Amino acid sequence: MTTTEYTRSVTIAAPSTWIDGANSLATLMGQNPVGDMRTFKTPTYVDSAGVECAVTHTVVRPALLDPLDTGTLPPDPADPMPNGYSRTAAEDAFASINQPGGILMAIDVDPHQQFAEWGLTPKPSTEEI
Amino acid sequence: MTARSISRSIAGPFARSIVGRLTWTPTQLFAAGQQGVWLDTLPKYLYEDSAGTIEDVVNGDPVGRADDRSGNGNHLTQATSADRPTYGTDGALDWLAYDGAGDFLSNNFPSSDVSTGFFLAVAGNWNDLPDNAYLFSLGSSSSDTPVVGIRSNSASGSGLSLVYRTDDSTNNQPVGATQDTNKHVFTLRLLSGELEFRVDGVQVNNLPVSGSTTIDRIALGALLRSGAGFHANANVHAALFCLDNVTDTERDQVESYLADRAGITL
């Protein structure tokens, strides 16, 4: 039996103002232009200051994390890239990682514990029932 | 001796549990072309990508497609990499792990009024119990109103519950079993206007319902909404939805099959 190549994990919280950039960054780093532009959708978490965030957590191959060490993003994985993609927005989003007001990212953690450590709580449910 | 003669010569549930596993599969529920979906989490039915081209899923791999074994072609998929559940196995059992942070598998199918009769079954467990974390759901791609699903429900204090909301927003919410993080087989059956909810083969609620409920989308690990979804941090071993009037015997057979998939003793 072979073992999985997906030995790392990424947990991300994107403030509302960074959602579009975060989606471009996810599409760029994820190397999966089909679908990854919808990685971050409606904010479902909020911090104590009222900043709403869209969150995600996923397993990844180790190579996906290389830009975090090198500071260099890979080339666009497709030509053309999907509608809404912006390399500039992806680069800006990358530069914001773990900066004040920027995208929050943690590696190899339990996502729900990490959301709590970031001070994020689920937004109140709008379910009618 | 044939399988049927063996079952008559050995009394009770033991025969059903042994012979049932050998001779019966959910394929028979769909033999007349009934609409629905049947999902097993064995790796031969799973793929890394939503297109179904990357096979050989192993423990820890993300899953972008789970084949529908009902014959309807309603394969459950996930095109967004970060929203794919992860395949897990301990060598004896198989499951898909949904992280509660956006994971789900889904598919659309022909718009159908399920108030004519349906059967929903899932074997799995929640890993935590927030409000509105759906393990399995039916809904509409064009409206948030009609909902059929099984969810954790901490807010009301009523425990695990199911939701059945019709096209005219009439809410039916049978109080469910005390919720926990253990594995269970959950079934929901609408038959002759009665909505029956069972856990591990035992009825926990039953109530009359009326009104049309038109759905065209199924999801595992979440209830999909026009805005945010209601995602579950959960493991699912197998799931089934059949748009038909399912008999007591068929219901029991599905429960036994799902229990076997999840390593649950009914």
What does this structure look like?
The complex is a heterodimer of chains A (129) and B (266). Chain A has four helices and five strands. Chain A is of the alpha+beta class and 129 residues long. By secondary structure, chain B is mainly beta. Chain B contains three helices and 19 strands. In chain B, the strands form four sheets. In chain B, strands 1, 5, 6, 8, 13, 14, 15 and 19 form an eight-stranded antiparallel β-sheet that branches. Chain B has a six-stranded antiparallel β-sheet with strand order 7-16-9-10-11-12, with no helix packed on it. Chain B is globular, with a radius of gyration of 17 Å. The relative contact order of chain B is 0.20. The N terminus of chain B is likely disordered. Chains A and B meet through strand 3 and helix 4 of A and loops of B.
What percent strand of chain B?
35-45%
What's the quaternary structure here?
heterodimer
Number of E-state strands of chain A: 5
SSE string of chain B, helix = H, strand = E?
A: HHEEEEEEEEEEEEEEEEEEEH
Low-confidence stretches of chain B: 1-21
Q: What is the mean pLDDT of chain B?
A: 88
Give the overall shape of chain A, derived from the CA principal axes. globular
Helix proportion range of chain A: 25-40%
* Class per helix and strand makeup of chain B: mainly beta
How far is the first residue's CA from the last residue's CA of chain A?
A: 46 Å
Largest sheet of chain A: 5 strands, antiparallel
Beta percentage of chain A is: 15-25%
Query: Gyration radius of chain A, to the nearest Å?
Result: 15 Å
Largest interface: A-B, 36 and 33 residues
**Count of separate DSSP helical elements of chain A:** 4
Structural class of chain A: alpha+beta
Query: What is the global morphology of chain B?
Result: globular
Indicate the percent of residues in helices of chain B. 10-25%
Name the strands of the widest sheet of chain A in spatial order. 4-1-3-2-5
Largest sheet of chain B: 8 strands, antiparallel
Q: Any low-confidence stretches of chain A, pLDDT <50, length ≥5?
A: none
